[in-house]
Write a structure and sequence with these properties.
82% helix; mainly alpha
């Protein structure tokens, strides 16, 4: 059964060891950044705020892992 890592270091090691997970983080970061700008362009404020917050979170996590 999957166990939740107890420290951030374990999470970083898990992501570094799994290139598929790292790729998914990059794709989610790019997709949410695109949705953020698309939401602004289409004046969809809720989408822009949600996608922007999600994008910042994913990119923050990604750059802390690298």
């Amino acid at each position: 059964m999957f166990q939740v890592p107890s420290s951030a270091g374990e999470i970083v090691d898990t992501v570094k060891a799994d290139p598929v997970l790292l790729g998914m983080l990059i794709v989610v970061g790019l997709l949410t950044a695109f949705l953020f700008f698309w939401g602004i362009f289409k004046q969809t404020i809720k989408l822009a705020i949600f996608a922007g917050a999600l994008s910042v979170g994913v990119w923050y996590w990604y750059f802390n892992i690298r």
